[in-house]
Amino acid sequence: MKALKIYFWALLAFLWAPLFVVLVKGSTLTAFEKLLHNSEVIQAFRSSLVLAAATAVISTVLGLATAFALPAFPPRLRRIFTGSLLLPLVLPEIAFGIAYLVWYQQLGLAPGWFTLLLSHFAFTFCFVVLVLKTSVAKIDHSLSDSARDLGAGSWGVFRHALLPQLMPGIVAGAMMAFSLSLDDFLITFFVKGIDQLTLPVKIYSMMHLRLGPEIYALSVVLFAISLISVIFTQLWYATSHRSRP
Amino acid sequence: MVRNLASLSTLACFLLLSACTKAPEASTSAAPAAAPAELRIFTWSEYFDDEFLRAFSERNNIKVKADYFSNNEEMLAKLQLLGKDSGYDLILPSDYMVRTLVEMNMLQPLDKAKLPVLAEFEAEALNPDYDPGLKFSVPLAVGATGIAVNTKLLPKLSGVKELRWTEILENPAYRGKITMLDDPKEVLQVVLIIQGKKITTATEADVKEAFAYLKQHKGQIKGFPSETRPVVEADECGICMIYSGDALSVAKEKKEIHFVLPSEGATIWTDNLAIPTNARNVDGAYKFVNDLLAEAGAKSFTQRTGYRTANKKARASLPKEITENRVIYPTLEDRKKMSFLVHRKDLAALIDREWALLKSQ
Amino acid sequence: MDRRRLLIIPYALWLLGLLAAPFTLILIASFAQKDDLGLLHYGLHFDSYAQLFDPLYFQIFLRTLLMATLHSVLTLLVAYPAAFFLSRLPRKEAAFYLTLLLVPFWTNYLIRLLAFMDVLRLQPFGIEWTFQFHGILAAMLYNYLPFAVLPLYSALEKVPSSVIEAAQDLGASRRKVLTKVLWPMTRRPVTATFLLVFIPALGEFLIPVLVGGGQNFYLGSFLQQQFLTFRNWPLGSAAISLLVLLAILMLLFSGKALAEEEEMAT
């Protein structure tokens, strides 16, 4: 076990090394200064966040619906549905990007926020369903049964008996959709209109020149936020535990 | 559970931050007299920095929006996919791509009356092979593809002014130290030049012979990196095929990098401003071109990017260290040995295949 | 009818409108012909499929297959012990370590990759990594590791320590515990994880191009080139269609084989 621990820490070092590079390059005053002055990068960042949040919400809600629907079908159909959800993992993104664009044209949709959101929903949806599927399967139905016995309507059952149990899965699914959307470049490049600029697209366009320090500074900011929220919740959890009678 | 709460709060923080960062934009947009028209350009990343676009926007009450691409084919693919109504008012194709776009009826003819800046252009720039009479395009940047030599890795080459491709590709001393561009046209051009042929008159046999030569000497080549700058900056190549402007830009920080034009000849290329057929803000496009390529604009463009423009007034007023820099303004002798890339439709499939074969070896 | 079935409507719309439709377009494009200017003429031409059986393209595919297989095996080998370690820890501690594992992925993919390349350029262990095949494997491992650790952890967590202890009490060596206890219990998730890491690797193009330095052609960059540089959409579409077929077959086969084994075991 001791050996495994050392092994794990070695693995962490491997994964963190590039992160240190980013933190070092991004934690300089010039980097931050450049970031604040680079309105395009900031705007791209904002767009990416909003898009990712919207994608997460839509994918999670519809994914949850799907996860609930699946058990209502016979096992063979269920397997086919699940299998189809695995297909997008298989196809190269470039195929999707181009296919989506052509398809939207056939439908008469101009490239813009709607096509972008639609596409982001499309490729995150499958991941979310796969995550939520296991959550839904693990539900303890005794809780919902007793809630119903006590006279709760469907929404009440959902809100008080099912939702708390599903929370970990929902959050996991939403986070997955959020980060997939935030990171996407190739599909976005094809389906977006000229008014949309996302962070990965902006970074890609800067790649040929030199990745300006402002990008690293932005990464530092993102990283700091994530770190702070983890520490915050650790503390919150610790204190809330103490306050329990 | 902790992890999930952490994730939720992270999400919340992200959203908060997104709300916070709205502030800067609100404060900088003072209400203009009339709603600004938009100018949408599709361009290479290095040519227009935010400052220039902002200045132009303010001066002309036009909001400039730029989308970027990294190579011509990417640009063409996207334009093709978007169809006639691409939404762009101005695009920046390279020389051979202008010709392709014209053949596909994707560019509108230019109204010379609206381009007074052309009067300031060098005569020889006004009638290139790829667009005779500049009917559809206006050259912005003129550059060359040559070699960046890293004298730290190859000290023997310090101070060298002449270098032959045959020397590079055949001398075992350079084995594994060479990188070439990830562009079949450019690489093919090099070998055709070495073998005394031209792309305009090349035959299938010529192409096969050229690639056979490359396959023979592939061991000399370390790779075909898609981004040359980071490779040069990281000292990963002693002899790196590179665009002139990139080399200059790296050389500013790295003193051991020197740009050399190969003795046998090199590729000359231009990136050009062109207006797509269904552009909406055509007037804005013309304004942009005139602004960008007038004497002052052209001067600062060259100083910023290291590529010359065709504006002779700009050339006259640029400092000597630029006009006498062979990298930016090659001599007549240099230019005699330079040739443009050409897209040979009849050879395209063969080149595609040979390139894949070369890389798969 | 179970009213829950109505909830399947979003999925159905997604399936038809955002999966079947785009893929059908690709299928149609694969049977088209391209003219000199790159414009498509639709019809039922098998040219592009015939072209794919060119030994050259086959070579590219095989090389990609090899890379993906090596990469997947390597990733699983590295992830399994890590997942096992996590599974023996109390939940809270495991969550902490897992978070540490995932933290580097809170940065943008491209930035992470470029930063990783900066590290590679320092030539750790005194060897060159960029422009090398092993560099590509290292970068792939770096990128896919969490995708492997998470499902394996989830599976290994379900293996009660009592089972392992019992085996050890009965005198089983560590190797025996691995092969006779852990492996049979986790074979299915391992296979699933293998596919999860293997199939996307087939289409990967950024890493082989950036880290490998364009020395060789892999399926991903080949597709990129066919679609963008040569605008040979029929050929690119044909390659993708075959790739999808391969993936479907793999999924079907692995699903079937595992189901059979489960049947045999009971």
Structure description:
Chain A is mainly α. Chain A has helices at 2-26, 29-37, 39-69, 75-90, 93-107, 113-137, 141-149, 154-183, 186-191, 199-207, 213-243. Chain A contains eleven helices and no strands. In chain A, helix 3 packs across helix 10 (199-207). Chain A starts with a helix and ends with a helix. The mean pLDDT of chain A is 83. In chain B, the strands form two sheets. In chain B, strands 4, 5, 6, 7, 8, 9 and 10 form a seven-stranded mixed β-sheet that branches. Chain B has a three-stranded parallel β-sheet with strand order 2-1-3. Chain B contains 16 helices and ten strands. Helices cover 74% and strands 2% of the residues of chain C. Chain C has a single domain, classed as MetI-like fold. A two-stranded antiparallel ribbon of chain C has the order 1-2. With 266 residues, chain C is mainly α. In chain C, a hairpin with a 5-residue loop joins strand 1 and strand 2 (40-41). Chains in contact: A-B, A-C, B-C. At the A-B interface, helix 3, helix 5, helix 8, helix 10 and helix 11 of A face helix 1, helix 2, strand 1, strand 2 and helix 4 of B.
Brief account:
The complex is a heterotrimer of chains A (245), B (361) and C (266). By secondary structure, chain A is mainly α. Chain A is 84% helix and 0% strand.
